[in-house]
TrEMBL record:
Keywords: Dioxygenase, Iron, Metal-binding, Oxidoreductase. InterPro entries: 1_2-CTD_multi_dom (IPR043029), Catechol_dOase_N (IPR007535), Intradiol_dOase_C (IPR000627), Intradiol_dOase_core (IPR015889), Intradiol_RC_Dioxygenase (IPR050770). PANTHER family: DIOXYGENASE, PUTATIVE (AFU_ORTHOLOGUE AFUA_2G02910)-RELATED (PTHR33711), INTRADIOL RING-CLEAVAGE DIOXYGENASES DOMAIN-CONTAINING PROTEIN-RELATED (PTHR33711:SF7). Belongs to the intradiol ring-cleavage dioxygenase family. This is Catechol 1,2-dioxygenase. It comes from the Bacteria. The keyword Metal-binding applies.
Length: 259
C-alpha cells in the first residue's frame, strides 16, 4: 500500500485506520499460510454475503459489540448494547401502560415489563420514549420473517408523568442465525453454534438526553453465557418473576446521560 500525504484530518484518520486493519489482515494471511483455494473460497463467500443482503447481520454479530463497548465507555448512565440488524424506525406510538402490537393468538408466555426512565440526577423523565422491538416466542422478528405482521412486537411507548412504563408483551425465544445464508454457512463451517440468547431490544429517548440503545436478557436463559454476538453484559440481565396468573414480570430502570 502506498502512503500519500493526507490533506485533511478525515482523510488522515481513514488512511491510518484502514491501513492498520488491512495490514493486520495481511499479517494474518501470512501467519496462517492462506492458500489460493482458501482465498478464492473466501472471496466467493464475501460476494455471497452481499448478494444475500447479510452484511448487516454479519457485521452486527461479529463486530458491533466492540464498537458498542468503546461507545459505552463514554456513558455514565445505563449500559448500552448493540442495535443489531432488525431495528425499524416508525413503529406504532403507544402510551404507557401499553400492550405491544400482537396477533390475537400470539404464541408464548405473557411478559409485563415495567420500569422508570430517569436522568443522571435520578429525576424521572416523563414523556420519554421506550422504542422496543423483539423476536416472538418462535424467534422471529416482524419485517424480517414472513409470518409476523408488519409491526408485531414493535412500538414506541411514551412513559407517564412519573417516567414509568408498563409494557405488556410476550417472552421472546432465543434467536437462531439463519442457517441457509452465508453467515449461517460460515458458522456451521467453523463448528460454532448459531444462537443469541432471548432478548428485548430498546432505544430510550428523552428531550435533552443522549439516546440509549440497549438490550435486556433473561437470567439463566439458554445461550446467555455464549451469545454468538458477544453482546451480553451482566448488568443487562432481567430476573423473570411469576405474577401467579401464568404471566411473567420483569423490571428495569433506565438512566440516561445528558445529550
Ligand atoms: C439479532 O436478533 C440481533 O439482535 C443481533 C445483534 C444479531 C442478529 C440477530
Ligand atoms: Fe435481536
Amino acid at each position: 500500500m502506498t502512503t500519500t500525504a493526507a490533506v485533511n484530518p478525515t482523510q488522515q484518520r481513514t488512511a491510518e485506520v484502514v491501513a492498520d486493519i488491512f495490514g493486520v489482515i495481511n499479517e494474518r494471511l501470512v501467519r496462517h499460510s492462506v492458500t489460493y483455494p482458501e482465498y478464492q473460497a473466501a472471496k466467493a463467500w464475501l460476494i455471497k454475503v452481499g448478494e444475500a443482503g447479510e452484511w448487516p447481520l454479519l457485521l452486527d454479530v461479529f463486530f458491533e459489540h466492540t464498537i458498542e463497548k468503546l461507545a459505552s465507555e463514554r456513558r455514565q448512565g445505563s449500559s448500552g448494547c448493540i442495535e443489531g440488524p432488525y431495528y425499524v424506525p416508525g413503529a406504532p406510538e403507544l402510551s404507557s401502560p401499553a400492550t405491544l402490537p400482537q396477533r390475537p393468538d400470539e404464541p408464548g408466555d405473557v411478559l409485563v415489563f415495567t420500569g422508570t426512565v430517569r436522568d443522571l440526577d435520578g429525576n424521572p423523565l416523563p414523556g420519554s420514549v421506550v422504542d422496543i422491538w423483539q423476536a416472538d416466542a418462535l424467534g422471529y422478528y416482524s419485517q424480517f420473517h414472513p409470518d409476523p405482521p408488519q409491526w408485531n412486537l414493535r412500538a414506541n411507548v411514551t412513559t407517564g408523568a412519573d417516567g414509568r412504563f408498563e409494557i405488556t408483551t410476550v417472552v421472546p425465544a432465543p434467536y437462531e442465525i439463519p442457517k441457509e445464508g452465508p453467515t449461517g454457512q460460515l458458522i456451521r463451517a467453523a463448528g460454532w453454534h448459531h444462537w443469541r440468547p432471548a432478548h428485548l431490544h430498546m432505544m430510550v429517548r428523552a428531550q435533552g438526553c443522549r439516546t440509549l440503545t440497549s438490550q435486556l436478557f433473561f437470567a439463566g436463559g439458554e445461550y446467555v453465557d455464549e451469545d454468538i454476538a458477544s453482546a451480553v453484559k451482566p448488568e443487562l440481565t432481567l430476573e423473570l418473576a411469576h405474577l401467579g396468573d401464568g404471566r411473567y414480570a420483569a423490571e428495569y430502570d433506565f438512566t440516561l446521560d445528558p445529550a
